Amino acid sequence: MYAPERQQEILRIAQESGRVDVLSLAEEFQVTAETVRRDLKALDRAGLLRRVHGGAIPVGRLGFEPDLAERDAVAADEKDRIARAALAELPADGNVIVDAGTTTARLAAAVPVD
């Protein structure tokens, strides 16, 4: 089996099982562990798998959050409505502590500066 074919199969196995490990793949494909490591490194560089100690996991299983700009754009109108409604509930001469988040950031931006 050629490297591209093996890598395609490694990717399929990783997506089905959620992870792959070097020693199992070496045994399955009857190649050395170093060959599997090179395959995993190539798949990692291509952004298809993420190398972890002893193997790899599919990129989709990492659970990374979208960046702030993406999260801020989701449901922007609703976030603005929530911010306006929350602003109306704030005391005129009081203090408020605002936690992190894209909705609360809109509230913080709407609070008038004296």
Automatic annotation (TrEMBL):
It holds the Pfam family HTH_DeoR. PROSITE patterns: HTH_DEOR_2. Residues 3-58 form the HTH deoR-type domain. The keyword Calcium does not apply. GO terms for molecular function: DNA-binding transcription factor activity. Keywords: Repressor, Transcription, Transcription regulation. The keyword Transcription regulation applies. Repressor of the lactose catabolism operon. Galactose-6-phosphate is the inducer. This is Lactose phosphotransferase system repressor. It comes from Streptomyces anulatus.
